Amino acid sequence: MALDPQDLARVAHLARLHLDPADSDALAERLNRILGMIDHLQDADVGEIEPMAHPMDMVQTLRDDTVTDTDIRTTVQPLAPATEAGCYLVPRVIE
Amino acid sequence: MSWETVIGLEVHVQLSTASKIFSGASTAFGAEPNSQASLVDLAMPGTLPVLNREAVRKAVKFGLAINAEIGKRSVFERKNYFYPDLPKGYQTTQLAEPIVGAGVIEIQLEDGTRKNVRIHHAHLEEDAGKSLHEDFFDEQGQGMTGIDLNRAGTPLIEIVTEPDMRSAEEAVACARKLHSIVTSIGICDGHMAQGSMRFDVNVSVRKQGDPKLGTRTETKNLNSFKFMEAAIKLEVDRQIDLLEDGGTIEQETRLYNGDTNTARSMRTKEDANDYRYFPCPDLLPVIITDEDIEALRAELPELPDARQARFSAEYGLSDYDAGILAGDRAVADYFEAAAQAAGDAKLAANWVIGDVAGQLNAAGITIEQCPLSAADLGQMIQRIQDGTISSKIAKQVFEACWNGEGTPDEVIEARGLKQMSDTGELEKIVDQVIADNATQAEAFRAADEGKQKKMFGFFVGQVMKLTQGKANPQQVNALLQEKLKETPGA
Amino acid sequence: MHSLTLTELNAGLARGDYSARELTEHFLQRIQTLDPQLNSFVSITAEQALAQADAADAARARGEAGLLNGLPIAHKDIFCTRGVRTSCGSKMLDNFIAPYDANIVERMRAAGAVMLGKTNMDEFAMGSSNETSYYGPVKNPWDTSRVPGGSSGGSAAAVAARLIPAATASDTGGSIRQPAALTGVTGLKPTYGRVSRWGMIAFASSLDQAGAMANSAADCALLLQAMAGHDSRDSTCVARPVDNYLGELEKPLAGLRIGVPAEFFPADLDSRIADQAHAALAELERQGATLVPVALPSVHLSVPAYYVIAPAEASSNLARFDGVRYGYRCDNPADLEDMFKRSRSEGFGAEVKRRILVGTYALSHGYYDAYYLKAQKVRRLISNEFARAFEQVDVLMGPTTPEIAFGIGAKNDDPVTMYMADAFTIGANLAGLPALSMPAGLVDGLPVGVQVIGNYFREAQILNVAHRFQQATDWHRARPAVGDDA
Questions:
Q1: Which residue has the higher pLDDT, C281 or C417?
Q2: Do residues C160 and C37 lie in contact, with contact meaning Cβ atoms separated by under 8 Å?
Q3: CA B155 to CA B145: how far, in whole Å?
Q4: Which of B373, B394, B415 marks a domain boundary?
Q5: Which residue among A31, A41, A92 places its CB closest to the CB of C375?
Q6: pLDDT digits (tens, 9 = 90+) for C206-236
């Protein structure tokens, strides 16, 4: 499988990465080398084997429904690029 | 040409837990922006989710309430998309292995018709934050959006129905039924105005008899039954108009504006639906055992359907009245407490469905906030029963109690509303009314029986006026019947 | 002092040969003097370090010395440290002062360790050469024209040059073991779930594991003793008692069955590396271990499976860097989309973007089954093969890497060649097994590492094997050019 420029543009948009058209060919070439390496997976005979999402065969532990986290707004909001009146600011969202 | 409407619902139900689904932050409504956003909710680098037991328990309870198969192994997945109120860049949700499988609910329309709506599945997920589009501007005066992440991570179940509904009325009945179930079993507070339940409606139309479904649109985030009904009707009309004009329906997401009763298409991107779901590697499969299921089943209260049937059988209520009362657990509890205190379930039902519901509605409050307790309502009904007050005076008592003037007995006492059941005193008043209205009394005696019936009310009214409504109507009737027939002075 | 191992320094502190403050001042001085040649640190926290050292001395005076009391350490910059910049080697987090401590940071502090600074790393741990760091490449102290390996290249170089006696590190596909091999230090990646991931900035959540680097297996045992344990904030962290890692170190190797997978000695392997690995095996055989040939027939698919799973998880894990709540935001965004795209494109480096793109593609509509699901199945295949091997043997061994340290810039044109640097290490991550790399010789004057892979939660056993090897050899005492002054 190989990425064409259209695929690359679509994937870059999904990942919210800006694509410089000048670099696009070189990038596609590198990505296709990686995808070419990955394609060796297709040689594997996996039969009926179950996919493995976790290295451990463990189950989810559950926590008690208690409020343990307090207000940390004054600690964390200075980390943000833009805030006002306790809100994080972003360019206006148009739906 | 005749068109058939096909509707399916996706219902987001906020689970009433104290803390969030994956963090220990509070879920309380109405806090200062971002004061309930923890490190996990903010998606700080390096933070990890841990699942809230209560969210799992509540989701399973819903499954049991609709007789669904419970996912004994359910898996959280990541739904990846960028949005400023989605801090991780993905929503943790369930897809291939949800916690609640297929089930069914029965809905009842106003005319009493019953119908089954199949539930495709229900899954656990986290809510996003809120985007506030007003009030924020940058230095250049450009409009900005403010992000409040207090809601981010609130536990939800998303209930997905099959496209089994054929009208807006059916869709609303289904929504009401779900509201009734989730509030009855105590997994959601049901506060629609606070967004505790939100509805996405999938609407399509097809020619009557066509086996193929038409192209559907999705109208998102409706948070009242009224808007839901209006939005569906609007969308159905739009689709039919478009098709009859030779147009085609675009599959799209629409936004409904309740203030203007209009809707518009949301800006769609060609990639909008490539969410790249995959199992969340930070969370492990959730295992529910048979013992867990049986323990939760034992915790379930009487469900709305069963309660409705019992109200009909036990109290002799009409199916419709029983349905209204049983549909809301708090209302049903209130009714049962009032009925017990009153010793008359039918009267209690009439009062709860009538005056109580009317006043609550007018005040915009829920039955939990009702200023008149069920015990008070019961006491008032008792006073009607034992003849202390008339039904008419009861309305006054009710209002006074509502306004905080005390218990019904206190109000009756303080306002002197006790019914005149002393026949001697009443007799004097009746005599006086007849004496004061001698001409009318004369005419009454001269009239035939039919006419008398019409004229009788005038005398009753006069007596009530003089007694300020405190006369026992039965006694007034009896006395008047007797006295009017007597010749004056005889 | 710096020529001593962590274990030896610990004994010296206990004896009162020097104070924690003296030790801290000494290593701060070394970092100051030597690190300009290596670029192994991205932050130096001298002031806090001296305060922590004084606290450690006071604790010792009260008789309350912890397991690592007064020992200087450095944290890889992937671990959140409250009040200290935690950049993860990225421009994206260049301005990020972590508001909380990682579990491993809390545990090490509680044990009395003194943090001297944060070490350089490949950006978001994506790399095998430490060249993808926003703060510039780290240089190998054995030859500063060469890479130290990655992604924990800063920790490896700093430990190798004795700028610090020990450092934390993380390993997603070999990021502890490969740089340990290339710089001649001992690096331990514990079993997945043995050490909490809370506060470790995620690269690929199902593969990431925190661990340790030092100059001996005994040092790694001491560090693991302090960092291992259950943490209720990490759902994938196991609630299982922590073994006594120090207690098994001296156990004789008689009866030990060492599996030697042929796949770790491929035909095109540098024979000098193979020879060193065989020599190490011969030493263990001499001590009573038995060598057993085993097969891991699918392990050659580790790299392709890894380069689907890790980028797929990373593409999602790194979506949170959107310029909204912390981190880099581009100047003057035209609109929301522009803010997302430019903040991410300007904030991330080239390798990180490549992996995000590969991962996004692998998960996207129409490719999920062929890439992601297939990779997960191959993952189980490989994991099952390891499980079968451990039915026959106690540990698996082979060279850690197919190559010795390569030149800076040598593999920049072809990402795939670079990825092959982790060909022998990735398998343990896919299966979740504990593994370590220890120095086992020199080729062209550069270190060669040998890998010991253990069964689940058998860290004590692989530490035992490495310790017995280090008792009989002194490769772990060999010193690189930079910092070889004592």
A1: C281
A2: no
A3: 24
A4: B415
A5: A41
A6: 999 999 999 999 999 999 999 999 999 999 9
Distance from CA of A64 to the nearest CA of B (A): 6
Chains touching chain C through at least 3 C-beta pairs below 8 angstroms are A, B
Tell me if chain A has a CB within 8 Å of the CB of B95: no
Taking CB atoms and an 8 Å cutoff, what residues of chain A touch B83?
93
Beta carbons of B54 and A65 less than 8 Å apart? yes
Q: Which among A42, A81, A90 has CB closest to C336?
A: A90
Q: Which two tokens stand for residue B108?
A: 């009842």
Mean pLDDT, rounded, of chain A: 93
| Residue B391, CA distances (Å) to A10, B136, B430 in order | 72, 56, 21
Over residues C57-71, the mean pLDDT reads: 97
Helix (H) or strand (E) holding B79: strand B76-80
Domain of residue B395: give its range.
302-415
d(CA B73, CA A50): 15
Q: Is the pTM of this model over 0.95?
A: no
What pLDDT shows up at residue B1?
66
Identify all chain B residues contacting C99, using CB atoms and an 8 Å cutoff.
Answer: 39, 44
Whether C87 and chain A come into contact, CB under 8 Å, resolves to no
pLDDT at B267: 63
* pLDDT for the residue numbered B477: 85
pLDDT in tens, A43-88: 899 989 999 999 988 999 999 999 999 999 999 999 999 999 999 9
* In-domain check, residue A24: yes
Distance from CA of C310 to the nearest CA of B (A): 11
- For residue A49, is it within any domain? no
The number of folded domains in chain A is 1
Ramachandran region, residue B382 (left: φ > 0; alpha: ψ -120 to 50; beta: rest)? alpha
- ipTM score above 0.95: yes
Secondary structure (H, E, C), C61-105: HCCCCCCCCCCEEEEECCECECCEECCCCCHHHCCCECCCCCHHH
Mean pLDDT by 10 residues, chain B (490 residues): 93 98 97 98 98 98 97 98 97 97 94 94 98 84 93 98 97 96 94 94 95 94 95 97 94 92 77 85 98 97 94 93 90 94 93 94 90 94 87 89 92 82 79 87 86 86 84 83 72
Residue B64 lies in a domain: yes
- Among the partner residues B44, B277, B281, nearest to C206 by beta-carbon distance: B281
Among B307, B337, B336, which Cα is nearest to B322's?
Answer: B307
Q: Select from B272, B293, B314 the last residue of a domain.
A: B293
Chain B residues in contact with chain C using a Cβ-Cβ cutoff of 8 Å = 39, 42-51, 78, 80, 82, 84, 87-90, 145, 147, 273-274, 276-278, 281-284
**Pairwise CB contact (< 8 Å): B82 & C340:** yes
All partners of chain A with 3 or more CB pairs under 8 angstroms:
B, C
Q: What is the mean pLDDT of residues C401-414?
A: 94
Tell me the residue range of the domain where A15 lies. 5-43
- C-alpha atoms less than 13 angstroms from C-alpha of C336 in its C-beta half-sphere: 19
C76 in catalytic set: yes
| Coil/strand/helix, residue C114 | strand
Which domains does chain C possess?
A: 6-257+459-477 (3.90.1300.10)
| Domain count across chain B | 3
* CA distance, residue B173 to nearest chain A CA (Å): 30
Catalytic site residue C175?
A: yes
Judge whether B161 and B118 are in contact, CB under 8 Å.
yes
CA distance C80 to C104: 9
Would A17 be classed as within a structural domain?
yes
Question: Is residue B243 located within the same domain as residue B157?
Answer: yes
Q: Is C151 designated active site? A: yes
pLDDT of residue B268: 61
Interface test with B, best of C235, C329, C352, C357 (most B CBs within 10 A): C235
Peptide bond between residue C298 and the one before it cis (omega within 30 degrees of 0): no
User: What residues of C are in contact with residue A50 (Cβ under 8 Å)?
Assistant: 377, 380
pLDDT of residue C36: 98
Q: Give the rounded percent of residues in chain C with a pLDDT score beyond 70.
A: 100
